[in-house]
Design a protein that fits this description.
With 219 residues, this protein is of the alpha/beta class. Helix content is 54%, strand content 17%. Helix 4 (67-80) packs across helix 5 and helix 8 (144-158) packs parallel to helix 9 (172-181). The structure holds erythose-4-phosphate. Erythose-4-phosphate (E4P) is lined by residues 6, 26, 28, 111, 131, 133, 135-136, 167-168, 187.
Length: 219
């Protein structure tokens, strides 16, 4: 399973990269705004900076919501770097745009997916990645992980190559459960990824090993 980090924060992207587990980055307009990245030139140079850190795919989301504008914006984004993936919303014109970019050999990430039917459409249009938002479903008392399971089943039934990119991941057990269900990719905040490291028995065990070593060395 690939690990993407879901942030536009360069320091956090570097930290995940240096940990050696980073396979890519996803961003969205809210994450860019959170880092104070506004204005066309700043947004473009920020995407270039992200591509300079990771060796993996970088999802850059269009702001446009009509087909012609999405195509123009997506083409400009795709020209920035070979690893830019054009991120498009699950709306009618977004599906058309995914098909357009698929036919041109440009990678896409279909975002804001909340149902198996939407994921089926994204795969039919040839999306490289589909992003079901599991945390936001959990927030409204709907089982986000069930959606991952349903999409996995549907894609496997027909051999769709679209990669299931579990998004809106909130905590380490989301990541573990997505791995059990066969998600191809998770995108998560740095905190959810590093939380996978934690176990009190690891900390206690290491403290004991070091204490025993120090005691023996002092004899
Ligand atoms: C997906 O690519 C989105 O950027 C993201 O996962 C949304 O997560 P949130 O629900 O925590 O905002």
């Amino acid at each position: 399973m690939k690990f993407f980090i879901d942030t536009a924060n360069l320091a956090q992207i570097k930290e995940a990269h240096e940990l050696g587990v980073l396979d890519g980055v996803t961003t969205n307009p809210s994450l860019m705004a959170k880092e104070g990245i506004t204005g066309h030139e700043n947004i473009i140079s920020h995407y270039k900076a992200i591509c300079g850190i990771t060796d993996g795919d970088v999802s850059a989301e269009v702001i446009a919501t009509t087909f012609d504008e999405m195509v123009a914006e997506g083409e400009a984004l795709a020209k920035l770097h070979e690893r830019i993936v054009v991120k498009l919303p699950m709306i009618k014109d977004g599906v058309r745009a995914i098909k357009y970019f698929t036919d041109k050999g440009i990678k896409t990430n279909c975002t804001l997916v909340f149902s198996a039917g939407q994921a089926l459409l994204a795969a039919k249009a040839g999306a490289t990645y589909v992003s079901p938002f599991i945390g936001r479903l959990d927030d409204i008392s709907t089982d986000g992980l069930q959606l991952i399971e349903d999409i996995r089943l549907i894609y496997d039934n027909y051999g769709y190559k679209t990669q299931v990119l579990a998004a809106s991941v909130r905590h380490p057990m989301h990541i573990v459960n997505c791995a059990k269900l066969g998600a191809d990719v998770i995108t998560a905040p740095l905190g959810a990824i590093t939380a996978l490291l934690k176990h009190p028995l690891t900390d206690n065990g290491l403290a004991q090993f070091l204490a025993d070593h120090a005691k023996a060395a002092s004899k």
